């Protein structure tokens, strides 16, 4: 037997009751673990010596990226670390260059807007909810259809893999994320004028931007390619939410992309099915939890609190994340799609906010974590849950 129990276990780990239950794990969520029942929520200290010790967030809609008004501008880094970074692009005009990121693989998440994405492997139309994996070193060009677009860019050092490789071990790969819905770019015949035009390629190399000049367009001269599906797009609304009859599944169960080194997990969390067991042994929502990975969350769509769309949260491994559970209930019929969608990026990289992001950190994170994050997460109106902050 690998799992033991000690002391008083008041109800199942999936349940809800008078105690705060905290899930402690190592290696992100994939290592050994302990589920701890306690009288207080360790996520709510009375004080802290450094702001970096506590979870914090920004509203990405109140900050301006350099590429918003300057077509030659760059995305704005928000969270950076060794081996991963998250940046914001608000490009309103076509890239006057093609771009190559020689440092990192990218997952580009299209939060708002419509774009044409030209790449060395062909072109694709992308829209809000799409995410596109672009491997290191391949050239691309992004052309927004209109101003007002927002792209959240996840840069990772390790190659991006389909999380299908995780699900292979339990044998129902095709019943979870349907990767066959991924769209791959295909070269189309371009006119001589499109091919033979001077092109500047902006190259990100060892942390700095450089440029190369070509007398042709590298996004239009390719006539064909074959190989692995290394550049593709999927849409978050195509990813099913998953749950159990009793409660929540931690984020890596929702992994869509990851690295084989498990240095990051890109999790898509849509609405979860409501558990069918009553309290105290079942609940809806996450327990308090602590692990050794840095954790990032982005609100793409919050039906119950749309003003929180675009909020970006960073949870360091210094203290648990509060969690929030509520009793399960049957959804009304006929069922409808709930427009709740969050991205979660877990990484072994040590991230920190950039100075620009630090300037707009939300005040009072112990309350904001409920009004901006957990409240919408489990379908509880924010005002009703702020009391948990004082628990
Ligand atoms: Fe968390």
Helix content: under 10%
Strand content: 25-35%
**Residue ranges: pLDDT <50 for 5 or more in a row?**
none
SSE series: EEEEEEEEEEEEEHHEEEEEEEEEEEEHHH
**Apparent shape:** globular
Bound ions, cofactors and other small molecules, one mention each = fe (ii) ion
Terminal CA distance reads 35 Å
Strand segment count: 25
Cα gyration radius (Å): 22 Å
Q: Structural class of the secondary structure composition?
A: mainly beta
Distinct helical segment count: 5
Spatial order of strands in the largest sheet: 3-22-21-24-18-17-13
- Overall average pLDDT: 91
Total domain modules: 2
Report on the biggest sheet.
Answer: 7 strands, antiparallel
Write structural notes for this entry.
- The chain contains five helices and 25 strands.
- By secondary structure, the protein is mainly beta.
- It folds into two domains: 20-59 and 238-390, no CATH class; 64-158 and 171-235, Jelly Rolls (Sandwich).
- The strands form five sheets. A seven-stranded antiparallel sheet has the order 3-22-21-24-18-17-13.
- The chain is globular, with a radius of gyration of 22 Å.
- The mean pLDDT is 91.
- It binds fe (ii) ion (FE2).
- Residues 289, 295, 315, 321 line the site of fe (ii) ion.
């Amino acid at each position: 037997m690998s799992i033991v129990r000690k002391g008083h276990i008041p109800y199942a780990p999936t349940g809800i009751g008078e105690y705060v239950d905290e899930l402690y794990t190592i290696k992100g969520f994939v290592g050994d673990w302990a589920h701890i029942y306690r009288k207080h929520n360790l996520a709510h200290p009375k004080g802290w010596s450094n702001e970096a010790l506590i979870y914090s967030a920004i509203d990405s809609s109140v900050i301006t990226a350099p590429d918003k008004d300057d077509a030659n501008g760059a995305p704005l880094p928000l969270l950076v670390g060794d081996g991963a970074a998250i940046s914001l692009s608000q490009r309103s005009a076509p890239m006057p260059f093609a771009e190559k990121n020689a440092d990192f693989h990218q997952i580009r998440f299209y939060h708002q807007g419509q774009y044409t994405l030209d790449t060395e492997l062909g072109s694709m139309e992308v829209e809000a909810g799409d995410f596109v994996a672009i491997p290191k070193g391949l050239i691309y060009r992004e052309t927004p259809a209109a101003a007002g677009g927002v792209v959240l860019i996840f840069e990772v050092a390790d190659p991006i893999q389909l999380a299908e490789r995780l699900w292979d071990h339990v044998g129902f790969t095709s019943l979870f994320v349907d990767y066959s819905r991924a769209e791959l770019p295909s070269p189309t015949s371009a006119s001589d004028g499109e091919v033979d035009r001077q092109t500047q390629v902006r190259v990100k190399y060892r942390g700095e931007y450089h440029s190369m000049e070509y007398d042709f367009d590298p996004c239009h001269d390719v006539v064909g390619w074959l190989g692995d599906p290394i550049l593709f797009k999927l849409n978050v609304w195509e990813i099913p939410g998953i749950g159990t009859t009793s409660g929540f599944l931690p984020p890596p169960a929702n992994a869509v992309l990851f690295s084989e080194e498990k240095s990051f997990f890109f999790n898509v969390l849509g609405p979860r099915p409501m558990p069918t067991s009553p309290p105290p042994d079942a609940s809806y929502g996450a327990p308090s939890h602590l692990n050794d990975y840095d954790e990032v969350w982005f609100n793409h769509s919050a039906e119950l609190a749309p003003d929180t769309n675009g909020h970006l949260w960073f949870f360091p491994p210094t203290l648990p994340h509060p969690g929030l559970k509520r009793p399960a209930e049957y959804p009304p019929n006929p069922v409808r799609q709930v427009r709740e969608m969050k991205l979660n990026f877990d990484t072994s990289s040590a991230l920190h906010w950039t100075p620009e992001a630090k300037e707009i950190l939300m005040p009072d994170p112990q309350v904001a974590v409920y009004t901006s994050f957990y409240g919408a997460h489990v379908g509880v109106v924010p005002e009703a849950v702020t009391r948990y902050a004082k628990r």
